[in-house]
Amino acid sequence: QVQLEESGGGSVQSGGSLRLSCAGSEYKYPICMAWFRQAPGKEREGVSCISWSGAYTYYTNSVKGRFTISRDNAKNTLYLQMNNLKPEDTAMYYCAAGPVYGLRSENYNYWGQGTQVTVSS
Fold first, then answer.
1. In whole angstroms, what is the distance from residue 59 CA to residue 40 CA?
2. How far apart are CA 32 and CA 23, in angstroms?
């Protein structure tokens, strides 16, 4: 059983930055990880994913050039550096872990509880 815990959310003004972290329990097999987000009244959206080695990353179009995903497998930790934040980035952010690379929710079978990001204009 993989346990995930997000941290680093908060409230910032438009143009600001935040760094999200997701601490996981020890992984018993190579695992892909991702960040998803869900705003009130909207469906959950895949933001970014990263392969086990970190060699492959993918971003949804709306965050390309602003967000950077990374991982430290020695620390079992996933990161999301978010720069130039916009009000439309406001959402609950979740990290997820699973065996299949990609931004489909079905690829992930372990989820954190989420951390809130609020961006004001």
1. 21
2. 14
Residue 74 CB neighbour total at 10 angstroms: 6
Residue 39, strand partner residues? none
Q: How confident is the model at residue 1 (pLDDT cuts 50, 70, 90)?
A: confident
Give the integer Cα–Cα distance in Å for 69 and 55: 11
Distance CA 9, CA 46 (A): 17
Which tens digit of pLDDT belongs to each residue from 49-94?
Answer: 999 999 999 999 999 999 999 999 999 999 999 999 999 999 999 9
What is the 3-state secondary structure of the chain? Answer: CCCEEEECCEEEECCCCEEEEEEECCCCCCCEEEEEEECCCCCCEEEEEECCCCCCEEECHHHCCCEEEEEECCCCEEEEEECCCCHHHCEEEEEEEECCCCCCHHHCCEECCCEEEEEEC
